[in-house]
Amino acid sequence: MVRMLFPRSLRNRFAALCLSTVPIVFSFIMAADSGAQPVATRPYAVSIFATAPPGLSKPDSITFSSTSVFVGYGNGGAPDGSGGAKSNIIQYDFNGNVINNFTVVGHNDGLRFNPTRSQLWAVQNEDGNANLVQIRVPSGSARITPLGTGPHGGGYDDIDFNYFTTFMSASAPTINPNTAPAIVSVEVERNRAFFTDVLNGNATATNVTTGETETLNLQDPDSMIVNPRGELVMTSQGDGELIIVQHPGRACQRALVVPLTSAAGGPTIGNTQADDTVFTTQSSGELLVADKGLNTIYRITVPYFAAAAYSAISVFDTPTSANPIESFVGQTNLTTGFVTPIVTGMSNPGGMAFIPAGVNLQDFINASMRIASPCP
């Protein structure tokens, strides 16, 4: 998919206009015409985990349970859910074989497995008119909860669980400066959602690369994950930043901002943009990354995974460029903000997951939802 270096609300409206005219041809031409071929830097290795099933396209969000991997296919639908957009959630085994295919209404851009309920939580329509679909596995029965359009003017994107709290990123804001919540917590009761503000788009944060305090203006809240310390790490994609929230939702909450740079992007902040970021939690395992342009999910392995963060990156040569000059998966230094490529030659990498090996995945997933550090 062609990426624009503008706030996501504008990029997605442009994409929706194009897709409403040629919804199927466009998505397949982009995949077929792309000359990208992923190449790993030693000692990393890259291989194909799975390709898009016939008729599906634009794989993005990835999550996993103790027995399966789940991938959301947006199929080039409009990001506000208009035009009859439908997405598919494909359930794979750990060898990349299809087990199940769940169809959801709307454009999927947020997916997380909730082990306490044995459910997939899938968020639709990040531009507005958002909804949450809770899918029971393996039956496929679902409950839809409207999330609507938030005070930021957009919808909701990624979702994660931390210490029995559900967090969401508030995506595609239409206000600048963004004075509305960029991260919220949500409680779902029957078919209603109740939101609590966690971090505003204009919050005060410490810049980890300078040590200075600054006021944020988050124009593209996007992917989000809980790191091994129990902190929320959210991508503000078009801003080229990662936002770290320590003790989220508590009285001692603290925010930090990590401006991203790379060799290809140079020193200009905003040229290096991340989609998903994940953290290694064991020395043995595999990184999965979905490439929307190549319609493929790739597996990245290495003999030893040190504790580190990895991001799906697209680099632009100027702040007004329409197309990335380079797309790759890189190791992200959260102290300096510098991203070092480990797999280059990608087209449009987005969703990622790190799946540890040699552990009881159910125990691991359950434990990861209960991380809470005490206030200092």
Structure description:
There is one protein chain. The chain has 376 residues and is mostly beta strands. The chain has a domain of 251 residues. Helices cover 9% and strands 46% of the residues. It is built from three helices and 27 strands. A hairpin with a 5-residue loop joins strand 17 and strand 18. Helix 1 packs across helix 2. The longest helix has 14 residues. The protein is globular, with a radius of gyration of 19 Å. The N terminus is likely disordered.
Number of helices: 3
Structural class: mainly beta
Report the β-strand fraction as a percent range: over 45%
Q: Which runs of at least 5 residues are low in confidence (pLDDT < 50)?
A: 1-33
Strand order of the largest sheet: 16-15-20-19-18-17
Briefly, what is this?
The chain has a domain at 8-56 and 167-368. The chain has 3 helices and 27 strands. The chain has helices spanning 8-21, 23-33, 361-368, and strands at 39-40, 45-51, 59-64, 69-73, 86-92, 98-105, 108-114, 119-124, 130-136, 142-148, 156-162, 165-170, 181-189, 192-200, 204-207, 213-215, 221-226, 232-236, 241-246, 254-259, 272-279, 285-291, 296-301, 309-315, 326-332, 339-344, 349-356.
Which features would summarize this protein structure in a list?
single chain, 376 residues, mainly beta, six-stranded mixed β-sheet, five-stranded antiparallel β-sheet, disordered N terminus
Topology (elements, then pairings):
Blueprint lengths: L7 H14 L1 H11 L5 E2 L4 E7 L7 E6 L4 E5 L12 E7 L5 E8 L2 E7 L4 E6 L5 E7 L5 E7 L7 E7 L2 E6 L10 E9 L2 E9 L3 E4 L5 E3 L5 E6 L5 E5 L4 E6 L7 E6 L12 E8 L5 E7 L4 E6 L7 E7 L10 E7 L6 E6 L4 E8 L4 H8 L8
Parallel strand pairs: 15-20
Antiparallel strand pairs: 1-26, 2-23, 3-4, 4-5, 5-6, 7-8, 8-9, 9-10, 11-12, 12-13, 13-14, 15-16, 17-18, 18-19, 19-20, 21-24, 22-23, 22-27, 24-25, 25-26
